[in-house]
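Ops channel
N.P.: pipeline sanity check, posting one input/output pair.
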């Protein structure tokens, strides 16, 4: 039994390392400055993210990409998340406040909030989480990567900045499972669903 567990974990580790090393890095692309600058709508669903939303919005407002909007959705928060988003939308023209309508049956919470943002978008769509701070080049690198590679979609794997012990332990295990199951290396294989 222990031998089987060892081989399973070894497989996960090897496959994860292979996936991570072969996946292209956003910073490996040239700047957007020599290409068209399409409008980008950043959809930011948030529920009870009072602790993180300001850091995320501040990082999104510091983007070096010139043509974007932030569609920040308050998904029925019971804390001050909605008030913070309203304050940002009144003082920053790039921020659009959306108060998500009550979720109908058959929808999950986050999917419904993302859909509410989708209904307001004006450009190409970029989704992010409210507890994620971004480097100032996140949007420009994503746009240049999409354009240069002629991609229909792009998923960026963020650098994890965990501070507590259990997050540092749990997240790598979850990443390993997701990388094995949903490896980016499989996306260019036509027979893969």
């Amino acid at each position: 039994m222990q031998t089987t567990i060892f081989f399973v974990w070894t497989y996960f580790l090897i496959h994860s390392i292979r996936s991570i090393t072969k996946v292209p890095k956003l910073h490996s692309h040239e700047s957007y400055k020599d290409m068209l600058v399409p409008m980008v709508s950043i959809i930011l669903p948030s529920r009870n993210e009072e602790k993180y939303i300001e850091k995320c919005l501040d990082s999104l407002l510091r983007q070096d990409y010139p043509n974007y909007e932030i569609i920040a959705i308050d998904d029925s928060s019971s804390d001050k998340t909605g008030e913070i988003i309203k304050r940002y939308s009144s003082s920053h023209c790039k921020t659009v406040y959306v108060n998500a309508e009550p979720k109908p049956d058959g929808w999950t919470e986050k999917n419904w909030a993302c859909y509410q943002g989708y209904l307001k978008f004006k450009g190409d769509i970029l989704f992010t989480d409210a507890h994620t701070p971004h480097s100032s080049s996140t949007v420009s690198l994503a746009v240049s990567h999409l354009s240069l590679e002629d991609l229909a979609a792009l998923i960026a794997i963020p650098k994890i900045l965990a501070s507590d012990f259990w997050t540092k332990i749990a997240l790598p295990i979850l990443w390993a499972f997701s990388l094995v199951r949903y490896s980016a290396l499989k996306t260019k294989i036509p027979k893969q669903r």
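N.P.: looks fine end to end. The beta strands are 40-46, 68-74, 95-99, 124-127.
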